Amino acid sequence: MQNDLMRRLALQPGLSKKFGLRYVDGLWPHLEIGHPAGVVRLIGAAKNYVKRGRVFLRGQVQQHDAMIPSLFRGNLADSKKLREAERVLFERNAA
Length: 95
Hints:
Radius of gyration: 15 Å
Largest sheet: 2 strands, antiparallel
Strand content: 5-15%
Number of helices: 4
Strand order of the largest sheet: 1-2
Number of strands: 2
């Protein structure tokens, strides 16, 4: 679902042309935004699509394919619990 949403947002001329929004497919699909003001517009447009859901963003200035979120850095025993919590959160929000 999130990939479809990213593709739809990237196809909106008001976002793609004005703010340099571009969908990048691959192992870690993501949106690239060429202008800082585009972030705010992207959030608003995403919220309009999901209506009742939440919009989660992860901002970084460079695409790091192997980047591990800070939540999962550290003790491997703890990361198993955190990954399970992430799975539950994802499934709850996907419904």
